[in-house]
Design a protein that fits this description.
Helix 6 packs antiparallel against helix 7, helix 7 packs antiparallel against helix 8 and helix 9 runs antiparallel to helix 10. Strand 2 and strand 3 form a beta hairpin. By secondary structure, the chain is mainly alpha-helical.
C-alpha cells in the first residue's frame, strides 16, 4: 500500500490508480465491509489522497459494481451474493481460459521469471497462512497474467471479475482454505511458465471449478 508522502509526489493519473488500488484492497479484504456507507471526505482523510483522484477511483469501482453511489448520503459498498457469483464464474471461465492459454504462448522471459518468483512467494504465504500477503500476491498474479496474454480486451473484461472473486473467496473462506487455493494458482503458474497452453487452460478451468464449488457451498447446495 502506498504511503501518503509517495502519493503527494505522484501525478494525478497515478494518484487515481493509487487510490483505486488502496480502496480495492480495502473492499476485497473487508476493511470496507459489504453494506458500509462512507463519504468521500471520510475516505480521503483515511487514505491520504485528495478528492479529485479519489472520485476517479470511486467511479471505476462503481462501474465494476463494487460500490454504489447514494445521492446526498455517500457511497455504499455492494453486498456479496453467492448466487450471482455462479453467473460471474460462467463468464470468468471463458475469459480466464483465453487469458491463460495466450499467456502461456505469449509471455516474455521476464514475465515467466516473475511468475516463478511469484509462485514461490505465494507458496510461502499460504504455508504460513499470511492472508494479507497472499491476497496481494493473488492480485499481482491476476495482473501479470493479464499483461502476459497481450489481449487488452480480455484483460479489461476479466479484471473486475477477478476483484469480485477475491472478495468472495476472502469473505467465505477467510483463511481456512488457503493451501488448496494456492495449489490451483501454482499449477496455473507452472503451466504458463512452461509455455504449455493446453495445460494452462486446464489449470484455469480447475481453478474455476474450485471457486464454483465454494459458491455452491456458500449457497448450501447439496
Amino acid at each position: 500500500m502506498s504511503t501518503v508522502s509517495e502519493a503527494l509526489t505522484s501525478t494525478p493519473a497515478s494518484l487515481a490508480q493509487k487510490a483505486y488500488d488502496v480502496i480495492e484492497e480495502m473492499i476485497v479484504t473487508l476493511k470496507l465491509p459489504p453494506g458500509t456507507v462512507f463519504s468521500e471526505q471520510q475516505l480521503s482523510a483515511r487514505i491520504g489522497i485528495g478528492r479529485t483522484p479519489l472520485r476517479e477511483a470511486l467511479q471505476r469501482l462503481v462501474d465494476q459494481q463494487l460500490l454504489v453511489m447514494l445521492p446526498r448520503r455517500g457511497v455504499l459498498v455492494s453486498e456479496i451474493h453467492a448466487g450471482q457469483m455462479l453467473a460471474l464464474l460462467e463468464t470468468r471461465r471463458v475469459l480466464d481460459r483465453l487469458i491463460a492459454g495466450k499467456a502461456a504462448l505469449r509471455a516474455t522471459p521476464a514475465q515467466r521469471e516473475a511468475l516463478r518468483r511469484l509462485a514461490d512467494r505465494m507458496q510461502q504465504s499460504a504455508s504460513s497462512v499470511d492472508l494479507e500477503t497472499y491476497m496481494r500476491l493473488d492480485h499481482q498474479f491476476d495482473r501479470l497474467l493479464e499483461e502476459a496474454c497481450r489481449n487488452p480486451f480480455a484483460s479489461r473484461a476479466a479484471a473486475p471479475l477477478h476483484t469480485h472473486c477475491r472478495r468472495f473467496w476472502y469473505f467465505y473462506s477467510h483463511g481456512r482454505d488457503v493451501q488448496p487455493a494456492a495449489e490451483h494458482h501454482l499449477a496455473l503458474m507452472a503451466a504458463v511458465t512452461e509455455g504449455n497452453g493446453n495445460a494452462a487452460e486446464q489449470a484455469s478451468d480447475q481453478l474455476i471449478d474450485y471457486l464454483e464449488a465454494l459458491a455452491r457451498q456458500a449457497l448450501d447446495y447439496r
